[in-house]
Amino acid sequence: MALGHRSQIKRARNAVHETRPHAKLTYARIPVQKACYVMDAIRGKDVTTAIGILQYNPRYASEVILKLLNSAVANAENNLGMNAANLYVAECNASNGPIMKRIQPRAQGRAYRIQKRMSNLTIVLDEKKAEAAQPAEDKAENK
Questions:
Q1: If we measure between CA atoms, which residue out of 90, 73, 91 comes closest to residue 82?
Q2: b/e string for 85-100 if b means 16 or more Cβ within 10 A?
Q3: What domains can be seen in the chain, in order of their start residue?
Q4: Selection from 82, 121, 114 nearest residue 99 by Cα
Q5: Would you state the pLDDT for residue 2?
Q6: Farthest-apart Cα atoms in the chain, separation
Q7: Angle in degrees, 0-180, between the axes of helices 32-42 and 47-55, rounded to the nearest 10
Q8: CA 90: distance to chain centroid?
Q9: Phi, psi of 98 (to 5 degrees)
Q10: Integer CA distances (angstroms), 16 to 13, 19, 52, 82, 123, in order
């Protein structure tokens, strides 16, 4: 039942640190469902293709996610010394954030509640593996 002392649990949690370049935006004023439409379009794509998709996507969420993707690419280049041409979007997700609750006056003294939803956006990049491309070429030569 007991997982250990509080400090042991924290030490174990901090040891599992994300080594891939990533960027996170909390409290974005975008509902999760609307952000997921854009996130699904760029998941698994290389960075240049993802940037092109986001620049020409008419949704408001694409502007915010484009800034987040550019931040993740900058983190990869400056902090980890990776080449931006070899990066692709390994993971991207949107999770629920807090909800701002507002009141809209209606007829006959009634009040309707308006929920302004927020989301937490995360993008994780990874480098393409050069070794994965070589065996495919070898198989083509053997045929």
A1: 73
A2: eebbbeebebeebeee
A3: 20-142 (3.90.470.10)
A4: 114
A5: 64
A6: 80
A7: 130
A8: 9
A9: -70, 160
A10: 6, 9, 33, 21, 18
> Which spans in the chain are helix H?
6-15, 32-42, 47-55, 60-80, 130-142
Q: Mean pLDDT of successive 10-residue segments in the chain (143 residues)?
A: 77 79 95 95 95 96 96 93 92 95 96 96 90 56 63
For residue 67, give Cα distances in angstroms to 10, 27, 131.
32, 15, 31
Cut 0.90: pTM above it: no
Query: Which pLDDT score is estimated for 139?
Result: 57
Q: Residue 29: its pLDDT value, please?
A: 96
Rounded Cα gap, residues 128 and 88, in angstroms: 7
d(CA 22, CA 99): 25
